[in-house]
Amino acid sequence: MAFSDISLTALRVFREVAERGTLTAAAAALGYTQSAVSRQIASLERAAGTPLLERRHDGVRLTSAGQIVVRRAADVIDQLDATALELAGLPGEEGTVRLGWFPTAGADLLPRALSALRRTHPAITVLSREGRTPALIRALRAGTVELALLASAPPFRPPDTETPALVLVLQTLAERSLRVAVPEHHPLARREYVDVADLRGRRWIGGSGDDHVMGVWPGLDERPEIAHTARDWLAKLHLVAAGCGITTVPGSIGSVVPPGVRVMTVRGGPGEQRRILLARLPRPLSEPAARVAAALRAAALETAA
What we know:
The chain has eight helices and 13 strands. The protein is an alpha/beta fold. The chain has three domains: 3-87, Arc Repressor Mutant, subunit A (Orthogonal Bundle), CATH 1.10.10.10; 96-164 and 276-304, D-Maltodextrin-Binding Protein, domain 2, CATH 3.40.190.10; 175-273, D-Maltodextrin-Binding Protein, domain 2 (3-Layer(aba) Sandwich).
């Protein structure tokens, strides 16, 4: 089969696999069976004459040829979708920017940036999605987002090992300190700050799934007691307000905590810093995407200040 004979369906399936990281997740997102997804990938690989995916125990990884195909597939799909909109008499997407963001960015940084952008460039439409770093990096590679806000923890390694290296175009928007949120009537809330030793033996509210330790102070010399888990940060903070435990939060979230919660600085032990990064592929940004990036940088500086 010649590469010119491949179907649009195969390209869409391949982009979904590249973004989701597994055939199973892509099949679920598309409403296909896993065998149907496998057949589409196999047809693409036959046409390319080379493997496009590296099958691993934890999912799939794009080969160098796969990275080329997914980049071109994203261009083809976007152009065809834009053509369909134009033929239907609907507005195109020249001013649309797709953005991914880490969970707590939606509490303050993202709304602040989008609010400013609406005032200065109301014609730009931002379509955003929350995600964890691995998923956002895959989305960048697959071309389904143009920009991704990432949170990075020490030792601040590159977000992935693929090429081209995203680290070459990462911009540190701000540094944010990690703090703890406690109920306002908790004994710890009576102090000006919390000593790291006082965090031992506490009941914690962690993240859900594989992120259950998100919400627990890093580096504690004990196995933490996780009383509750929640994916949503607002849910975690309301559990704190209800006296169900304590949790960690970035310093920037302090302005949006619900009543009944006090955000405390932690002293002693190693300092815990998080970086807020803006990532993109090493290619020229569209003008709308550049405007969004500028708004995010300005909002990050405001939040840090």
